[in-house]
Write a structure and sequence with these properties.
- By secondary structure, the protein is of the alpha+beta class.
- It has eleven helices and 28 strands.
- The strands form seven sheets. Strands 18, 21, 24, 25, 26, 27 and 28 form a seven-stranded mixed beta sheet that branches.
- Helix 8 packs across helix 9 and helix 8 packs across helix 10.
- Bound molecules: oxidized coenzyme A (CAO).
- Oxidized coenzyme A binds next to helix 8, strand 22, helix 9 and strand 25.
Length: 527
């Protein structure tokens, strides 16, 4: 025997009416318990209304673009009587879905199939951190795969219940999030609740994606873009399953909201090499079972690598790089630096070559403003910057960071050297703020303290150029009819060929070399 059950819109707190942004099912569809039926949107949150039972959709009572109030019917389901354990209670979890109040939500470890326990390899958040829906909280590792457990709600981390190196089991509490935003499909009957089911739903996808690997032709998911994308939980789940980076998908829904169809269309276009995926048509690297050739160890990328990797990749595939090599005669500069460095050290300033190099970059950027520029979003205009914030690559135990020296053109070598030391120390200690890494116009990557003769630095897009510096070497240089020993600094200037042509590249590196050969240009006081 079967019977019909209505799934209704829950009490939505202060919202009398909410918009229906997407209808996810149609009559005849088979749904399971928790299958999202429609996506609703208030000014504060988007939420999916999940099915309260398994069954067949008999009728859909809402349309995309329409409005609906609490108690309004969403769909009617035809269900087996045996499957309806408590028909009246069926509306309860739904009713709780949209309760917009401050709640503490526990995020738990999902069912992990055959694994009773898994290791915690990385904590990605700390108490006090703000998180969005889908912000990864911890990275877990089984023998077969690594997976992030994402937050199911937006809010602030109240407590982290696991520690790096520890073990967790399915159902174990990962973190408690203090949320003012409605948790999707999360029962909020009590002030503090664990939401195993939605987490399981959210996590099942990344596990699958990790185990089977996202389609090789799709670009990797950038977590920061993914978490900021304007999309509901079920769209996020679909995107995870398909390995789609939501940050790259253009939304066709209200206020550019990303719909299921947008995700599917993006995948089709990407796989067809249509360009929608930006680099999606790149040939893939062969998958190799390394363990077949000997012992291996799986080490997940750390957080900085996960962020910087996709950015470097995006720059490499999107910007036509040209690298101009040159050498600067820094014999006089080194003599000057050696003369000044002890007095500077007495004042607590370490006068390394990099401070002079940044000053020389200021001179060259002033002469060639197209190097202090970016293409705008349309790709049709060059944005010339009237400020000069210079970034420098810092090698830290956790990976590459690029702190930025603001208004480098208004600072002398002592101020630049002081900031270099302060920002490098902060970078190494993991204490750089986001603002200290933003707004850069041009980057210097100095490997001079380590070694090498030249390299091809990747532009810190959307900047137009980056200067790579290698180790100074004493070389025989032909001068006035004889070879003389000179200290030569190797320069590797990569630039975006869409903005800068080859002649300008050579002129810029020549100007740079001239400034470095004339220390009086670099040691002048800045008014
Ligand atoms: N030639 C020869 N020696 C050099 C040099 C050069 N071009 N540049 C620096 N040195 C020397 C310095 O004088 C210093 O020597 P002393 O200790 O004897 O005085 C030593 O190398 C180390 O310098 P430093 O590293 O303390 O200071 P710095 O200002 O040169 O660099 C920083 C600071 C943060 C840029 C550097 O520590 C760093 O992290 N470099 C790596 C950047 C990087 O990873 N780039 C690659 C990015 S792309 O993956």
């Amino acid at each position: 025997m079967s019977q019909s059950i209505d799934v209704v819109v829950p009490d939505m707190g202060s919202f009398a009416e909410v918009g229906v942004v997407e209808v996810l099912v149609k009559p005849g569809d088979r749904v399971e318990l928790d299958t999202p039926l429609v996506t609703l949107e208030t000014e504060k949150a988007t939420m999916d209304v999940p099915s309260t039972t398994a069954g067949i959709v008999e009728a859909v009572h809402v349309v995309a673009g329409g409005k609906i109030s609490a108690g309004g019917r969403v769909v009617t389901l035809r269900v087996d009587a045996a499957a309806v354990v408590e028909p009246v209670a069926a509306a309860a979890p739904v009713a709780a879905v949209a309760a917009a109040e401050v709640v503490s939500v526990g995020v738990t470890v999902p069912d992990m199939g055959s694994f009773a326990e898994v290791g915690v390899v990385e904590l990605l958040v700390a108490v006090g951190d703000s998180v969005e829906i889908d912000t990864p909280l911890v990275t877990l590792e089984t023998e077969k795969a690594t997976m992030d457990v994402p937050s199911t709600v937006a809010g602030v981390v109240e407590q982290v219940h696991v520690s790096k190196g520890g073990k967790v089991s399915a159902g174990g509490l990962v973190a408690t999030i203090r949320s003012t935003v409605v948790p999707a499909a999360a029962p909020v009957a009590a002030a503090s609740v664990a939401v195993a089911a939605p987490v399981a739903a959210a996590v099942a996808a990344p596990v699958k994606a990790a185990a089977h690997a996202a389609p090789a032709a799709l670009p990797p998911i950038s977590e920061s873009g993914f978490s900021k994308a304007h999309a509901g939980p079920s769209v996020r789940k679909l995107a995870r399953e398909l390995g789609v980076d939501l940050g790259r998908v253009k939304g066709s829904g209200p206020r550019s909201r990303i719909t299921h169809d947008d995700v599917k269309a993006w995948v089709k276009q990407a796989l067809a090499g249509g360009g929608g995926g930006g680099g999606a048509a790149l040939p893939s690297v062969p998958q190799v079972d390394f363990a077949a050739f000997g012992a291996v160890e799986l080490k997940p990328l750390n957080r900085i690598q996960k962020i910087s990797g996709p950015r470097l990749h995006a720059s490499w595939v999107n910007l036509p790089h040209v690298t101009q090599f040159d050498e600067a005669d820094v014999t006089e500069l080194e003599a000057t630096r050696n003369r000044l460095k002890d007095a500077a050290a007495a004042k607590g300033v370490k006068l390394t070559p990099l401070a002079f190099i940044i000053r020389a970059c200021v001179h060259a950027l002033q002469q060639y403003p197209q190097f202090n520029a970016s293409l705008d979003a349309s790709g049709e205009n060059i944005v010339l910057k009237k400020y000069m914030h210079i970034g420098f690559a810092a090698d830290t135990p956790n990976g590459l960071l690029v702190p930025v020296i603001r208004d480098a053109d208004k600072k002398d070598i002592y101020q630049i050297a002081t900031e270099l030391a302060e920002l490098s120390a902060k970078a190494r200690d993991g204490k750089l703020s986001g603002a200290q890494m933003q707004g850069g116009c041009f980057t210097v990557s100095s490997l001079g303290g380590i070694g090498g003769t030249a390299f091809t630095p990747i532009i810190n897009a959307p900047e137009a150029a980056i200067l790579g510096v290698s180790r100074t070497q004493t070389k025989p240089v032909w001068k006035d009819g004889t070879f003389v020993p000179r200290q030569m600094l190797p320069l590797s200037l990569s630039y975006d060929h869409r903005i800068i042509d080859g002649a300008a590249g050579a002129r810029f590196s020549t100007a740079l070399a001239q400034a470095l050969a004339n220390p009086s240009m670099l040691t002048e006081a800045i008014p």
